[in-house]
Design goal:
Elements (H helix, E strand, L loop, with lengths): L6 E7 L1 H17 L2 E7 L14 H7 L4 H6 L3 H21 L5 E6 L1 H12 L7 E5 L7 H6 L5 E4 L9 H18 L13 E6 L4 H13 L3 E6 L4 H10 L5 E4 L4 H7 L12 H5 L3 E3 L6 E2 L15 E3 L5 E4 L2 H16 L5 E6 L16 H14 L5 E5 L6 H14 L1
Parallel strand pairs: 1-2, 1-3, 3-4, 4-5, 6-7, 6-8, 8-9, 9-13, 13-14
Antiparallel strand pairs: 10-12, 11-12
Helix pairs in contact: 1-7, 2-4, 4-5, 8-14, 12-13
């Protein structure tokens, strides 16, 4: 009988291919004083499953049947059905207060499926993925995405309960036990005034100064590195009700999405706060620069004005037409906002990269963006121009005061 005083964790695996290994992990978790709940996401197994949540239940929760899955040769289709069903069941368990953590094991397919289920669960719930393919180029970022997932590289294949694999699973079970036991700070902020702020290295001083002013006024400020992933995660966390306001200093991911560059933050960047009616202060750090992958450089990019952040990262200045296109996208998103919006425009450079003598410094060209934005924005949206560089103390003070006024 289930012990209600114990923590409960969901164990996700494909028991048709990793049954013995999964049962060992389950028993190890149980020996640590935690109730394991097995979810079998097998798509080809024919026999009865020993899991509490069987492939039949997963398929039905995904709007299909195990018979349909077995009969189909469309791998992507049945994979999506299984992920949908497993996610719906996991979210239901969490909503009922029956889930304190989740752990999974798998190779490429199993890891992709299980981590997608994990990403459907809220920030703050412990999540651990044991994967034999964690180190393959490109896969770890797909597994983690915007999720707060601990990725445990097994190194060896998950095949046969050898002493080496036992060592891996024992350590993973112990790690999860540590995460779910004891008192953990609630993921949902208890602060009545919780604010999200985006930042990048070239506007770090501004972000730090704004954060200090807001913290002094009683706000709890959480930062997000606006490099394409953390700012996507910020949008998701705003949608989940974790914040009451946003200071978006570095929304460069909007333009990066338009042009398909490395800091692409998705189609809904700079929309979620507006949809929720939250107050926003918007600025322009990095918006006048782009970061295309060097493997995908167009010939003309080599002729553009550029700035090397370091040996791995180069910022290339947007063309005048690209600046105007980004300004239109900003206006379209901000005009739909249901809450107050204030746009802060520094007139002497949009980051520490923008300084006299640097090839990409061009405040007159930046004015093209400002003019289009002013023309396209709804009249009720405030635009404040500050005769300073974004990293000047005067600009940070102006941003902080604008935030205090509308928060």
């Amino acid at each position: 009988m289930e012990n209600k005083t114990r923590k409960s964790v969901l164990v996700i695996s494909t028991l048709d291919t990793k049954g013995v290994e999964t049962l060992y992990l389950r028993d190890k978790i149980m020996s640590l004083g935690i109730n394991p709940l097995l979810m079998d996401i097998s798509m080809r197994g024919k026999g009865d499953s020993p899991a509490e949540i069987t492939p039949v239940q997963v398929a039905e929760a995904g709007g299909s049947s195990l018979e349909e899955i077995h009969a189909s040769r469309e791998r992507s289709k049945i994979t999506n059905i299984t992920i949908k069903g497993a996610s719906e069941i996991a979210k239901g368990l969490h909503a009922q207060g029956k889930l304190d953590g989740v752990i999974a094991m798998g190779g490429s397919t199993g890891s992709l499926m299980a981590t997608e289920v994990m990403r459907s669960l809220p920030f703050g719930l412990p999540k651990l993925m044991i994967s034999s393919t964690a180190a393959l180029p490109g896969l770890s970022t797909r597994y983690i995405g915007t999720g707060d997932i601990m990725l445990f590289h097994s190194v060896i294949e998950i095949s046969g309960v050898t002493d080496l694999l036992k060592n891996v699973m024992d350590r993973a079970a112990g790690a999860l036990a540590g995460m779910v036991q004891g008192d953990v700070v609630a993921a949902k902020s208890k602060a009545a005034k919780s604010v999200a702020i985006t930042m990048l290295g070239p506007c770090e001083q501004c972000a730090s100064s704004v954060r200090k002013v807001l913290a002094g006024a009683g706000y709890q400020v959480t930062g997000f590195s606006a490099a394409g992933i953390s700012d996507r995660a910020m949008e998701e966390m705003i949608a989940n009700g974790l914040f009451q306001g946003v200071v978006d200093l570095a929304p460069g991911g909007v333009g990066e999405h338009l042009f398909g560059f490395m800091r692409d933050a998705g189609p809904h960047r700079m929309e979620t706060a507006g949809n929720a009616g939250l107050p926003q202060v918007i600025s322009t750090c990095s918006v006048n620069h782009m970061t295309p992958s060097k493997r995908k450089y167009k010939p003309e990019y080599h002729e553009r004005r550029k700035y090397d952040l370091d040996k791995l990262r180069t910022w290339i200045r947007l063309s005048p037409e690209e600046l105007k296109e980004v300004a239109v996208a900003f206006a379209e998103k901000l005009n739909r906002a249901k809450g107050p919006v204030c746009v802060m425009l520094p007139l002497k450079g949009w980051s520490s990269v923008d300084y006299p003598g640097n090839a990409t410094f061009d405040p007159e060209e930046d004015q093209l963006f400002n003019e289009v934005l002013r023309e396209k924005l709804n009249p009720h949206i405030d635009i404040i121009e500050v005769d300073a560089n974004m990293e000047d103390p005067a600009f940070a003070e102006a941003v902080a005061q604008a935030a205090l006024k509308i928060f």
